[in-house]
Write a structure and sequence with these properties.
18 helices, about 425 residues, 4-stranded mixed sheet, alpha/beta, single chain, 5-stranded mixed sheet
Amino acid sequence: MPKSLKVVFLVALLAVVVAGCSIKPGTGSNQSASTNGPVKITFWHGMSGQLKNVLDQQVKEFNNSQNEVRVVATAQGSDYATNQQKILASIAAGNPPDIWQIEIHALPKFASSGAVIPLDSYMQKSKDHKKSDFVQGILKNTQYQGKTYGAPFNRSVPMLYYNVDMFKKAGISGPPKTWQEVAADAKKLAKPKQKVYGYEPVNVWWFFESMVWSNGGEILSPNNKKATFDTRKAQAGMDVWSKLKQDGALNLNSGTEAWSQTISDFSAGWTAMFTGSAGDMGQIEAGKPKFQWKAAYIPKFDKYAVPTGGANAVIFSKDKAKQKAAWKFISWFTSKNQTITWSQKTGYLPVMKSAIDDPKMVKYFKENPNHKLPIEQLKYARTAPEVPAYPQVLDDIQSGMDQIMYNGKPVGPSLKTAAQKANKDLSGSGS
């Protein structure tokens, strides 16, 4: 998952949707592909640091593997607020990228507006990339109203990471399985005088989704027209987090680099455990921690609830030749060998069944059990509502979480205010 998950959908996005995301013909990415030389494809993504290095290497390998398509990959920053502004500006200018790495919750908004093309026909014609070939839990949030608009790209699930050495010293035999255990263990592990904390969450709505669903709550009503995340069941997770912060057992980073800083804090031994993404494994390893660490399932209340996350690859180009070229790259990147490479080097999920069953991956999982846990968690995967306004709802949730965790506001009233904002966004009356 890209490292800043605070999705800010601007008023400009609504204007783009109303306008049908029309793209000026004969400009930018929609200009007809040249018949001379390889078809040039622009690819915008949000990878940074170690993840960007891995992706750049794979793009280079693709370009060197054939002469028909040349992919130009450009990092647009891992902050989704900035990323959204750039893509909207490119659409307004009639010059969007051919491929965009889109956060999964944003897909319904762009699919409903006609900005991105359906991929079903390409999958149906492909020998190796039919829907049945993808890991089923990974296909969640790639579709809108029965059509497939996104190909799983960097897909992830939330994970708990813990410092085995610190746990042993504290007399704790294994990772916490419930949020109640997280709270108890964090207090035992914290050493406030040494500025060592028991638990360090990344304060984003992704984990809020999991906690709400795990406790029997829901983000939206069954008809997706009303926010329901302000109930007692829904607020239980934030009750745990806010209490731990009050007790001095929880540390929290802020800003666009909060996620990366949380990983760094863990690798440096400043926190005993943190909740992050499966895609953090490569970055933890790159930090060369001087202790044994392990991954574990995201904690639960009554039951495990795993919101899939990360991004899909979507195609913006209206030019048929460029669409075909874009699909060639996407299908190459998600092929068995490439998804194995991507998964092993980053921790992101391998998206093809054939990759999981491949002897190389079976051996790798045996030697690196941390990397198998994300796949195991997919049996508890939940799909976020296919609602165009859902990213705005998530932004409202994020605002409520920020009030609670950064400003010390009470949980109940903060989530109630957030739900009121969400209801306006769902009804179309929000600003």
